[in-house]
Amino acid sequence: MATTHELVEMKFSPKEEENKAISAPPFRVYNSPSVPKSPFLSRLMSSTSNTPLASPVKKAIASMQGYLEEVGHFTKLEPHEAWLPITESRNGNAYYAAFHTLSSGIGVQALLLPLALAVLGWTWGIICLSLAFVWQLYTLWLLIQLHESDSGMRYSRYLRLSMAAFGEKIGKLVALFPIMYLSGGTCVTLIMIGGGTMKIFFELLCDETCSVKPLTTIEWYLVFTCIATVIAQLPNLNSIAGVSFIGAITAVSYSTLIWVLSISKGRPQGVSYEPLEDAKSDMASLFEILNALGIIAFAFRGHNLVLEIQGTMPSSVKCPSRLPMWNGVKFAYLIIAMCLFPLAIVGYWSYGNLIPASNDRLLTALYQFHRGGTSKLVIVMTSTLVVINCLSSFQIYAMPVFDNLEFRFTSAMNRPCPRWLRSAFRIFFGCLASFIAVALPFLPSLAGLIGGVALPITLAYPSFMWILIRKPQKYSAVWLLNWLLGVLGMVLSVSVVTGAIWTFVTKGLEVHFLKPE
Question: Is residue 513 assigned to a domain?
Answer without folding.
Answer: no
